[in-house]
Amino acid sequence: MSLTFIAPPLQQINSEIARRAGVDLYVLRLDLMHPLVNGNKWFKLKYNLLEAKEKNFTTLLTFGGAYSNHIYATAAAGNLFGFRTIGVIRGEERLPLNPTLSFAVQQGMQLVYLNREMYRQRNTPALEEYLQQRFGEVFIIPEGGSNLNGVRGCTEIIADAMPTAGYAFDRICVACGTATTLAGIALSLHEGQRAIAFPVLKNGAFLAQEIESLLKNYLTSDLPTPSNSPASWELVCDYHFGGYAKVNDELILFGQQFTQEHGIPLDYVYTAKMFYGVMDLLQQGFFCKGDSLLLVHTGGLQGNVGMEERLQRFSKI
């Protein structure tokens, strides 16, 4: 597996919808950084891996669902950088393994299953102690890489990946699951810029509290920050399509048509929902004429394999 990571390219979207709205539209292609460890998952993992290495841990343990991008990326990163990996999976084992978990096993990850009631305790000291007793000295990374190391990595998505071009955008749009990526981006922006997050969870307004907590905890930590004051941000909660990992035919058709028109594949758990939301808001006049928008493609394309039958049906339309 290659150790080479490339700088994410910036791609302009030539869209009639954007032209009518008077808005310039660009995509930051984090999905192209590396074949297996890409998107926002790399930024969330980066400093967790460095801390584990500095503290001489040899085993990483993390959490996720059966189709988790985070499980996929952690398994690949562990193999790439010489860590043993353990994935604690929500729910019961189901055989044969789906493509995500099959890949994780191929990368050397040991899978452990927890029932949903026990899994809900994943962030408690009691479960952490149980896991340490069962597996010994392991470096625990929370589900989705949602910790201060994850926020630190995400401060680099705009600031380091686009050291000059990043200043040019008025609005930066990103899909939102745990809010870690949004928090890191908000900490890296400049005065006048605004971050807009599109929760993929139903009733995602609760994430505002999570974002405030992440920002507060990060700013009171000793970790470096590009800014002592986060940029303004907002949540747009109307494009979850029924909740996490929920899709419908309208979303799938949109994703297929967008990919065909612009050559950018979208994942249906995260980026397709955000892209759909941006295009819909452009038609509603939500953005100001003259705005320059950056849409952050956070990867996760491996998750489309689980929707293969439905995607194949629409690829023939």
Global morphology: globular
Order of helices and strands: EHEHEHEHEHHEHHEHEHEHHEH
Structural class: alpha/beta
In the predicted model, the low-confidence regions spanning at least 5 consecutive residues are: none
Question: Could you tell me the mean pLDDT?
Answer: 92
Bin the helical content.
40-55%
Spatial strand sequence of the major β-sheet: 1-2-10-7-8-9
Strand content: 15-25%
Question: How far apart are the termini?
Answer: 36 Å
Q: Count of DSSP E strands?
A: 10
Gyration radius (Cα, Å) is 19 Å
Largest sheet: 6 strands, mixed
How many helical elements? Answer: 13
Give an account of the 3D structure.
With 317 residues, the protein is of the alpha/beta class. It is built from 13 helices and 10 strands. Strands 1-2-10-7-8-9 form a 6-stranded mixed sheet, sandwiched between helices. The chain has a 4-stranded parallel sheet with strand order 5-4-3-6. The radius of gyration is 19 Å and the shape is globular. The mean pLDDT is 92.
Q: How are the SSEs ordered, and which strands pair?
A:
Layout: E1 10-12, H1 16-21, E2 24-29, H2 39-54, E3 59-64, H3 69-81, E4 84-90, H4 99-106, E5 110-114, H5 116-119, H6 125-135, E6 139-141, H7 148-154, H8 156-159, E7 171-176, H9 180-188, E8 194-199, H10 207-219, E9 232-235, H11 249-262, H12 271-284, E10 292-297, H13 308-315
Parallel strand pairs: 2-10, 3-4, 3-6, 4-5, 7-8, 7-10, 8-9
Antiparallel strand pairs: 1-2
Helix pairs in contact: 2-3, 2-7, 3-4, 7-9, 9-10, 11-13
